[in-house]
Every structure is written in structure tokens, then in C-alpha cells.
Amino acid sequence: MQTIDDDEFEPSPPRRPLLRRKRVLIPLGTVVAIIIAFLLLRTPDTDRAEMIAKYGGPNAAFVAGPAGQRIHYRDQGKQGGPPIVLIHGANSSLHTWEPLVKRLGADYRIVTLDLPGHGLTGAPPDTDYSAEGMMAAVDVVAAKLGLDHFVVGGNSMGGWVAWRYALARPAQVDALLLIDAAGMPLRKGEKAPESNVGFRVLQYPFGRWLATKITPRMLVEESLRGSVENQAIVDDAMIDRYWELLRFPGNRDATVMRAKMNREPAMAARVGEIKVPTLILFGDKDRLINPTAAQTFHERIAESEVVIEPGIGHLPMEEAPDETAAAIADFLKRRLVPRPASPETR
């Protein structure tokens, strides 16, 4: 009969040390992988001088403001014509107005600027991105160019700045152009628009932190495509411009600060105080601001007219520049009343 050694029944060595090592190594490996991925994906700021050379050109103009701003602007078109100051939207730049400059510049003097925290202006020392801070930038450029009154217009956030400017400085505003402008409340029963991926990321604290560190070009492209209906305008040059200027020193931090800023929604109740001729122009396929906001503006501003462009998204001046320029020209020819010359210039 076969005998069995008692040693064969001894228990196996405990596996607890191995399990402990796994419990430590697996999370540690995950952390290391996340750190490596972060370092690989991290996108640094662009070079200030290189961006000014690329997007400002040899004649880039800057003006210093009282709060230490260094505001990038362009003064184009007919120097003796009625002046129009145009204000871009969030994460955009003065370049968004170039299609209108080409079409309206023969008859109007067109001034555009990069708002604080945008384009080649970058972050001002006081990091003031409120309506007052943005309007102060307009004041600085207007003073530099000797403009004591003008037509003011804006797109999206720039439209919000424009109507706030008309409320705050009515004596300086001859007419108002609101192009897919922000600032009106949702109408009864409405839902907020779907927006684009970039703005959705900024709704969350972690997303805001990440937005200052990682800015993939493909995310910028996706955000642009989510903002417009006419996809043909989104080419490599446009994507690069938005991507590189978003990474201009200080601009990404400014984007995060604006995302947390109080936009003073109660001010919308005062928009009816605007008395100057007002053109309200919206694309009917806007996915960032409900096109019905045009009707809300119209109901509240007595001297307003509405133009709705079919098949156009959030950027009519780039998506449909011919139609947008024609609507603005027609409106100003009918509604803009020339002011009498001052005694010094008569």
C-alpha cells in the first residue's frame, strides 16, 4: 500500500504579500499612465512675437490703456466714411470681421479690435473681462482714433458688449448692429441650445482646469464645426487661427475666468432703454444662441429691425458675408442719420 507523506498536506505559502503589491502597483501604474498622457497631450502657449508677426502683420497696431492694456486693433476702409466699430465673440478675434471689411470698406470706416483676453491683445494686467472691462477697451481704441461717436456692432459675446455699450454710452452710439448677439433670456418653454463641445467642457470645474493645460487642435475644429452651419468655411487656416490665438499667452486663463463670470442677466430688462436704430441679424441655424433671441431683442428695442438668414449658423459675417454685408448696408443707408459737423470741423 502507498504511503503519503504528511508534508504533502502542508498549506501553500500565503499570497497576501503578492495581493498587497498588486493593490499598490495597479493604481500607481494608472497614475503614471495619466501623468505620461498629460505630459504628451499638454499644449503650451504660443509665442507672442511669432503670433503678432503671423496674425498682425507688419502694420499691426496696438494702443495702451489706463489699466495697462495693450489692445490690438485695425482701422480700415474709407477714412472719411461713417465709422463702424465691430466687436467679436468669445474665443474669436478681429479677423472674424475681415469678410465684412472687404465688402463695406468702400463706404464705411471700419474699426475692429481684439478684446481683452483674446487675439493678439492677450490678458490685461487687471484681468477684467466684465462688460465694463470690455467696454473700456472699446473706449481706448475710440479715443486713440478720435472717434466721439460711431455705429457699434457685435457678434455673440461681442453683441452683448455692444448693447451694453449702447446703454452705458448712448451719446456715442449712432446705431447698433446685433449679430447673433448674446444676453437675452430664454423664452417661455424654451430649452437652452446645445452649444459646442468647447463651451460644454467649460461648464465643469475639471474641464475649466484642463482647458488651461490641454487644447487639442481637433477640439478647436470640433467646436468651430459645432458653431456654424456652413461647414465649407472651416478650413485649415481658420482652425489654425482659432487654435493658435486661443493659446496666445493669457487667453486660455481668460477663457476660464469668463466662464465663471457673472454676465449680469438682469441687465437684459434694461435693453428697452436703447433708442438708436438697431439691426438684429441672426442665422436661423444658430446652435449657440437660440435664434428666437432675435424676436426678444426686437420686442424690447423700439427702433429695431430683424433679419433672419436661412441656413446660417452662429457666424453670419463669415458664413454668408455677401448677404450680411448687404443687410447692414441697406439698414445703415435707410436708418443712419448723419450728425452735424462740430464747430471745429465745419
Overall description:
- With 346 residues, the chain is α/β, with parallel strands linked by helices.
- The chain has two domains: 15-44; 48-335, Alpha/Beta hydrolase fold, catalytic domain (Rossmann fold).
- It is built from 13 helices and eight strands.
- The chain has helices at residues 16-41, 48-55, 98-104, 131-145, 157-168, 197-201, 205-211, 217-225, 236-246, 251-259, 293-300, 316-319, 321-335; strands at residues 61-64, 70-77, 83-87, 109-113, 150-156, 173-181, 278-283, 304-309.
- It has an eight-stranded mixed sheet, sandwiched between helices.
- Strand 5, helix 5 and strand 6 form a beta-alpha-beta unit.
- The longest helix is centred in the N-terminal third of the chain and has 26 residues, at 16-41.
- The protein is globular and about 90 Å long.
- The N and C termini lie far apart (130 Å).
- Residues 28-40 have low confidence and may be disordered.
Features:
alpha/beta; 8 strands; 346 residues; globular; eight-stranded mixed beta sheet
CATH class of the largest domain: Alpha Beta
What's the overall geometry? globular
Number of domains: 2
- Mean pLDDT across all amino acids: 87
Ranges where pLDDT stays below 50 over 5 or more residues in a row are: 28-40
Query: What percent of residues are in strands?
Result: 5-15%
- Which architecture of the largest domain would the CATH scheme give at its second level? 3-Layer(aba) Sandwich
Helix content: 25-40%
Tell me the structural class: alpha/beta
Rg from alpha-carbon coordinates: 27 Å
**Superfamily (CATH H level) name of the largest domain:** Alpha/Beta hydrolase fold, catalytic domain
H and E string: HHEEEHEHEHEHHHHHEHEHH
**Fold-level CATH name of the largest domain:** Rossmann fold
Number of strands: 8
Strand order of the largest sheet: 1-2-4-3-5-6-7-8
Count of helices? 13
The N- to C-terminal Cα distance equals 130 Å
State the major sheet: 8 strands, mixed
